[in-house]
Amino acid sequence: MQQYATATNRDEIIKLVQKKFEAFATVSVWQKDPKSEQRTFLCEGKFSSIDTYEGIFMVDLDPAQMKNFKKDLDTYFLFEAQGLVFKTRPSPYMEIKSAVVAFSFPQSVKLKELRSHPRIYFSDDDKRTVSVRFRDKNGAGKIAVFCPIYNISKSGICIIVTKETLSNAKLNEAIEIQGLSFFEELSDEIKAVVKNARVFKKGFATDDSYALGLEFQF
Q1: CATH number for the domain harbouring residue 13
Q2: Can you say how many angstroms the Cα of residue 218 is from the centroid of all Cα atoms in its chain?
Q3: pTM assigned to the model
Q4: To the nearest whole number, what is the mean pLDDT of the chain?
Q5: Could you tell me if 152 and 120 are in contact, meaning their C-beta atoms sit under 8 angstroms apart?
């Protein structure tokens, strides 16, 4: 079964949508009846423009299908080649002209997981931590902290760090992680490199927390 990761951070969503529209000429667009779940509108859309300040993007839809388009229904978008899917609605502040429609940026997007190894997620009730050592970017040796695990696989781990840790750690060098022996396919201590970082808003995290994606170095 194909797994999807969900992005809810606004800046991340804007970057994802912009990147996909710039890379691909068309996107599948559809609407469905909220009661029957049957599709009432379906066409291939073409990216027209994007306005990150206003929080909208413009899509050129098929004029022949516009008679079936309803501006008060959720509209779904799918970049099939890259597995990005989301829903949103036409911007209430923009008039629909011809077949070019302005849509508000979605509140969340789902992106197909391209990883070869499945990830295991940990809830608040089953929270696990690891000991992590970063090199201090200010030259004061190493920063040692205990970090909750958000998810883990055979190839990497996502840990939760504070804003203070993130701002003081040197992220372009290998990081030492200890306490992984609970995961039967890993040794207790492994080095890793940072792949990405984003604001984290779930569960045991605070407003100053960040999710740090790390790739193991074997």
Answers
A1: 2.30.110.10
A2: 26
A3: 0.54
A4: 85
A5: yes
